[in-house]
Amino acid sequence: MSYAIIGFGAIGQALARAFARNNIEVAVASRRSPEALLPQAQAIGPTVIPKTLQEAVKADVIILAVLFDGHREVGKALPDWQGKTIIDAMNTNAPVETLDGLPSSAFAAKAFPGARFVKGFNHLPARTLATDPNVQGGHRVVFLSSDDEAAAAQVADLAKRLGFAPVNLGKFDEGGTLVQARGRVWGPLIFQDLFKQAP
């Protein structure tokens, strides 16, 4: 299984740290060249590999950590996203009417035809996401939602490998609305830093 993070700002770098902590190789890409990303990537760890966007989208699992307005541009990188699992770590405060009345992930998914789309890792600030999720004998919670149960399970497994405790909220328009944009009001779970005690 191969992994990539598209977007190498605060959230992208925080997620790259999670991969580096667990010695899992991950490609990183942004609008900047791989050479421009190299110093930051090397500072995080040797398993963080800068690539072009076209190279990064070859990964099996892709984390979208771009600004919400930039997701359509990423979607143009492939004509068909069949076989890809995309983790939507984006947030937006766009009015819900501009999202066709859909949860933000369901709206964004339209730019990635064929992909399996999962909302995740979006509810924690970058500085929190960057820290070790193993805290005081427990694990920091990440909320997931998806209309594809198998994809949600795949991302839950990745979250566990990264040290987090995944909590599946269900489909986008069900429990997933707790961590989706709704007009200019964030979902009730946005920016809640919760922990699950280790068994």
Account of the protein in words:
With 199 residues, the protein is α/β, with parallel strands linked by helices. It has a single domain, classed as Rossmann fold. It contains 7 helices and 10 strands. It has helices at 10-21, 34-44, 53-56, 71-75, 104-109, 126-129, 149-161, and strands spanning 3-6, 26-29, 48-50, 61-64, 85-88, 116-120, 134-135, 138-146, 165-168, 195-197. The longest helix is centred in the C-terminal third of the chain and has 13 residues, at 149-161.
Structural features:
199 residues; alpha/beta; Rossmann fold; 7 helices; 21% strand; globular; NAD(P)-bd_dom_sf; STEAP_metalloreductase
Helix coverage percent: 25-40%
C-alpha geometry: globular
Determine the CATH superfamily. Answer: NAD(P)-binding Rossmann-like Domain
End-to-end Cα distance, whole Å, is 28 Å
**Number of DSSP E strands:** 10
CATH classification class: Alpha Beta
Q: Name the helix and strand elements from N-terminus to C-terminus, one letter apiece.
A: EHEHEHEHEHEHEEHEE
Task: Kindly give the count of domains.
Answer: 1
Radius of gyration: 16 Å
**Poorly predicted segments:** none
Number of helices, counting only DSSP H or I runs of 4 residues or more: 7
Average pLDDT number: 89
**Would you tell me which CATH topology applies?**
Rossmann fold
Structural class: alpha/beta
CATH-derived architecture:
3-Layer(aba) Sandwich
Give a short account of the largest sheet: 10 strands, mixed
Strand residue percentage: 15-25%
How do the strands and helices of this protein lay out in sequence?
Layout: E1 3-6, H1 10-21, E2 26-29, H2 34-44, E3 48-50, H3 53-56, E4 61-64, H4 71-75, E5 85-88, H5 104-109, E6 116-120, H6 126-129, E7 134-135, E8 138-146, H7 149-161, E9 165-168, E10 195-197
Parallel strand pairs: 1-2, 1-4, 2-3, 4-5, 5-6, 8-9
Antiparallel strand pairs: 6-8, 7-8, 8-10
InterPro entries: NAD(P)-bd_dom_sf, P5C_Rdtase_cat_N, STEAP_metalloreductase
Protein name: Dinucleotide-binding enzyme
EC number: 1.5.1.40
